[in-house]
# Entry
Amino acid sequence: MSSVTFEHVSKDFGTLSVLQDVHLHVNSGQFVALVGPSGTGKSTLLRMVAGLEPPTSGQVTVDGQSVRRPHASRTLVFQEHALLPWLTLQDNVALGLEFQGSPRSAARQQAVEWLARVSLGDFGTYYPHQVSGGMRQRAAIVRALAVRPRVLLLDEPFGALDALTRLQLQRELSGLWTGGNMTVLMVTHDVEEALYLADRVIVLGPRPGRVIADHPVPLPRPRSRTAPPLLTLRQRILADLGVDESSQLKEVTL
Ligand SMILES: Nc1ncnc2c1ncn2[C@@H]1O[C@H](COP(=O)(O)OP(=O)(O)OP(=O)(O)O)[C@@H](O)[C@H]1O
# Structure
């Protein structure tokens, strides 16, 4: 587990000011969700923690050390799964473990165990194109978890999935995270997903993105999605985002 701090972080792409003076401290072991309108720099913040994008000013630190380049202790999972198509699910998961120095047989055994934790125990020998989108995304998530990163960065990890699969994967991630000690930063457009999973929901305002609200979610897990405190928080977050409640959307995504 590691703490992550954004200290007065700003980011410009050419003349476009994307982030302005973002100040945020994420405690070691915390699960933080970032929500906000499209184009406010949420993915850019994750890429900065991953070491893929430097801030224009300010700094991003992990455990007090300035992030300068990618490191295996910080893993990024995208919306589009990034499994290697020429490897089976089992070998995809095992690969990261082998990079870390596990002997091949031990890595493959661990990969089987990880896949079983997300109901993919019977699919280890399948190639990515032979399984569904939800199954691929599950495999991508356990591939990231298997190497036991200190910081897990999730960029709309369930965004491309149908609603039912998304709910199922949210439940699985909640279970996996409770058992694994790591710091998680997750970007999502789904306020309910943020409230179901996170310890804290950070709201970014319109571009140039900055933190406009920071809501703790003081509920133990597993959570009921309809718990009254969550519904109250949801209303507050939607108000922060300027979403009109009268639209009566059953499931609100931004
Ligand atoms: N490498 C880049 N070069 C130029 N512009 C970029 C680059 N990366 C991001 N941007 C711009 O920065 C802005 C913020 O992008 P980013 O993907 O971080 O936003 P976001 O909040 O994650 O958006 P969304 O919610 O739509 O995914 C966008 O206008 C995007 O075009």
